[in-house]
Amino acid sequence: MRATARKALLLSTLPLLLPWTVARAETCAETVKFLQEMYRYTPRICPDGEAADSCSGVTLRGTTRADPAKGEAWNVWESSPRSKQRGTDSYSYIRADINFADLAVYTNNGYIIAPNANVCAGQPISYTQCAYPKDGWTYDRTDRGCGDSPQTSMTETHCQNVGVNSGQAWWDQFRRNQTPDGAWGPQPYQMQCSFDMSKARGKAGRAEAFGDFIDAYKLTGGREFLMANEILRSNDQPPNITAFMYTDPAGRADALKNQADYFRVTGNYRPVVQVILPKYQGGQVQFLCDGQQMAFPGYSKTAGFCRPGKPSSPGFGVPGSPVLTPAQSAAQAAQAAQQAAQAAQQAQAAAQAAQALAAAQAGQSSGQLPQSSGPAPQSSGQYPQASGQTPAQAAAQAAAQAATFAQSAAAAAQAAQTAAQSAQAIQAAAQSGQMTQAQQAALAAAQAQAAQSAVAAQTAAAQAQAAAAAAAQAQTEAGYCRKYIESATWVQRNEPGYGLIWSLQVKPTECARRMGPDQTDRAYRELYEMFKTDPRWTENINPGSMRRQFVCHRVGVPDKEEWNLEPARPYVSSEASLNLPYICNPLPSDAGK
């Protein structure tokens, strides 16, 4: 079934070229090449003395799409109201010598921004304000997220203010937050100091602070590999997005939707890149182009990155307005119509692929596209969520959306064709004599209409492709549990070695008790989303411990009526957790096993 889904989505994407498009250094293949170069470049400080994140590494941000069913409405590249008020957004920084296994807060898609040295001339720049070698739990910290955490009894500040001026000093302080028995303290992440990179530190001070951040991260290991670092960047300017990305196949459909929305709203094309994070310490990140994403439309208002000292490639950045002859104007209108027709074909192919997936999921075969109703969704750019639906229902809904987008693309293509024919007729009528002002105006209007219609068709095609990806995801999820957690309740227990502690009584669904390892992340993410802001979870969390206990129950005692998970328990290896006398429930003395 999954092979069929992949085959159905091998859509033909023809290149769409405008007259000024010669080379496209910022399309997906070149973007991946650029990301690989940045990832492999590992200076402690940039050659020009700037902080290393200005010229190296890959800075990425995990995001979550709004759910219209919940009344939510935002674009993923925009800061939340709380982040706007704080003045910073959270990112993670990764490169060949700084790796981690997962994005923050279990997100699986988002975007990548360019290092400041590679931001194109004339585009706004944001700056790193502070850096935490490990997730800083910055949601409610003071000083733009770089200061004190109200979750601890002590007062956190910048590392430089408390004499933490090296990676080793940070690591020593972090380890001091362990409890006497060797387990991690209840709040090691909230108790972190941040390496201050504000303007007041000066160029050299900022660069040294980020170098210390790099040194500190390199000293962490083992279970700390599971947790990403966190850097906070100013958000008074829009982010300079280089690419949209996903780290798990489950995030692919959202990444494609984000790409389509970004082009529709901003006029900027950015490719979709799959980022494969290493699962084990010592592994390396892979960057891959998504094969069925929106084709480069031939232009973009801005480029995703620039090589220092070199202009953007042709096709990126608003072109000039050369004086065209009537014949050139008519030719451009005809080319726009051709682009629109190609986009309509792509949208139709995507809709057919989505319908095939929906039909397969429903156990029926149909060569007809589903009939859509209501206005074309691209006016709002929203893709209704499939929460609470069966995979078959979700696939059918996605197929209907794709069909609607395909109809929109076809209508736009027809409008472009009509405009091109009008331009051709005006140009032909004027061949024998001087063109009147009225004819010149009409020709310009026809050319503009053809170009606008081409953009509309290309946008609709991208949205149809994203909907087809959603249909494919729905089919993939047919083999997964619809729900993993039947219920989960906090209780307090007197536990040996601990005394009175909080315990999360988890009752998994019958499907979850029989799930394979390929569904563990999905199941744990469902539980995490239920309690990620609950202080009983967040104030006592030992990194990786709750997940280890969860997996241990799945493997060792899946039929136990309730899986009891305690945030206070230490992290131990998988083998140790399964071989303890009290399976899955390590004592403080088991820390490090």
From TrEMBL:
Keyword annotations from UniProtKB, A to Z: Coiled coil, Signal
Q: What InterPro entries has UniProt attached to this entry?
A: DUF2599
Coiled-coil ranges from the UniProt annotation = 327-357
Which range is the signal sequence, renumbered to this chain? 1-25
**Could you name the domain of life of the organism this protein comes from?**
Bacteria
Quick check: keyword Kinase in the entry? no
Q: Where is this region: Disordered?
A: 364-394
Full protein name = DUF2599 domain-containing protein
